[in-house]
Design goal:
- With 108 residues, the protein is an alpha/beta fold.
- It is 22% helix and 31% strand.
- It is built from two helices and five strands; from the N terminus they run βββαβαβ.
């Protein structure tokens, strides 16, 4: 996996240069938890996808990325936290295959 150090971060210089990816959570009235994968282009300030599911695994993240990238192209870097859905061989292989860097650093 290609990874970047936090001190080495550069600002996005164009569309698809740097994306930020994270989950938002909510709970339905019946008690079932909903997870929404959000992917934002940090340069264009556009949400590339907000994909809701009741369950998310690493392979589901890759499936969502493939769907989005098939329409608008692949990012150079994706900033993520170290959530369990992002720590997967599927995502590592996807990033390596598509020449994308996963920036897994966290502030603090």
């Amino acid at each position: 996996m290609k990874a970047k150090l936090r001190e080495d971060r550069q600002e996005a210089v164009g569309p698809n240069d740097v994306w930020a990816m994270d989950f938002v959570y909510d709970q339905l009235d019946l008690g079932k938890k909903l997870r929404i994968l959000t992917v934002v282009d940090t340069h264009a300030r556009l949400c590339r996808t907000a994909d809701p599911r009741f369950s998310y695994r690493g392979e589901d993240v890759v499936q969502t990325l493939e769907r989005v990238c098939g329409k608008i192209g692949y990012p150079r870097t994706i900033r993520i936290d170290n959530g369990s859905e992002f720590i997967s061989r599927d995502l590592d292989l996807w990033a390596y295959t598509n020449d994308a860097t996963l920036d897994v650093s966290r502030p603090g």
